[in-house]
Design brief:
By secondary structure, the chain is α/β, with parallel strands linked by helices. It folds into 2 domains: 181 residues, P-loop containing nucleotide triphosphate hydrolases (Rossmann fold, 3-Layer(aba) Sandwich), CATH 3.40.50.300; 66 residues, no CATH class. The chain is built from 8 helices and 10 strands. Helix 4 crosses helix 5 and helix 7 packs across helix 8. It is globular, with a radius of gyration of 18 Å. The structure holds adenosine-5'-diphosphate (ADP) and magnesium ion. The site of magnesium ion has 3 residues, from helix 1. Adenosine-5'-diphosphate (ADP) binds next to strand 1, strand 2 and helix 1.
């Protein structure tokens, strides 16, 4: 047990994982021998240059891609496809355009046959948690980019996944909204702890959110270094310790090829 009461127990394990894609007779290695353990309720950020293989790593954990070598294990089960135990939030959340916010958030429990009262209560809890109370009846085309990502987060949470996989979820937002969403996500995560694997190529976002930052190399990607972020939360982007860590990590980061 750690001092903060967290129990060290790996929920996600990548064991010597490599991924190669074949197209038009050519083989491209994208992930090269990555081994990683993510503990229960830990917030891990994968940080690396553009096109290095971050989305591919998320897809391997999500089960949308299968490893060419090595194994991916989530909650003691080897990943062989997507599953409700892993919620995914993407850069652009594909919401159902003809469903309201409520309809989108309750979609998972509804499709699993949870009765209306129970699933509405659950969906309302997460709509409130992400700050969308009052927008239950709004449709996706009536929402801003930040609000759509909030819906995506609430929808993923509503399935009660063990693990949240977030692939640059704030990458398309303007800087101001992005800062706000980083703060919001931290509050949500403090309240509803989950194991999170979060991808970004924004160093401030990585340091603001992470318990641990995994620095990735250029493609074919592998782990270059890990940084445990011990700064107290909520963090300040202008804290000298924050800026020091930022410099250390950036000096060690590959340039996008
Ligand atoms: N299905 C695929 N087939 C062939 N190449 C792919 C496929 N998916 C990703 N790649 C290649 O893998 C590399 C890394 O992609 P990606 O994981 O999306 O990087 P990142 O998310 O870090 O920007 C890119 O060069 C991309 O073209
Ligand atoms: Mg990507």
């Amino acid at each position: 047990m750690e001092p903060n009461g967290r129990i060290e127990k790996p929920i996600i394990t990548l064991d010597h994982v490599s991924k190669r894609f074949e197209s038009a007779g050519r083989v491209k290695e994208v992930v090269n021998d990555v081994s990683l353990e993510v503990n229960e309720n830990e917030f891990v950020v994968l940080f690396g240059p553009g096109q290095c293989g971050k989305t591919t790593m998320i897809n391997l954990i999500a089960g949308l891609e299968l490893a060419s070598e090595g194994t991916v294990t989530v909650d003691e089960k080897q990943v062989d496809g997507p599953g409700a135990d892993r919620g995914v939030v993407y850069q652009t959340t594909a919401l159902f355009p003809f469903c309201s916010v409520m309809g989108n958030v309750e979609f998972g429990p509804k499709s699993r046959g949870i009765d209306k009262k129970a699933r509405r209560e659950r969906a309302q809890y997460f709509i409130d948690l992400v700050g969308l109370q009052g927008f239950e009846k709004s449709y996706p085309n009536q929402l801003s980019g930040g609000m759509r990502q909030r819906v995506g987060i609430a929808r993923a949470y509503c399935n009660d996944p063990k693990v949240m996989l977030m692939d640059e979820p704030f990458g398309h937002l303007d800087a101001q909204t992005r800062y706000m969403m980083e703060e919001e996500l931290e509050k949500i995560w403090q309240k509803e702890k989950r194991t999170v694997v979060f991808v970004t190529n924004n160093i401030e976002e990585a340091i603001y959110l992470a318990d641990r930052i995994i620095l990735l190399t250029n493609c074919p990607t592998t782990i270059k270094q890990e940084y445990v972020v011990e700064l107290p939360r909520p963090r300040s982007y202008v804290d000298p310790e924050f800026l020091k860590l930022r410099r250390i990590i950036l000096e060690n980061t590959d340039e996008t090829l």
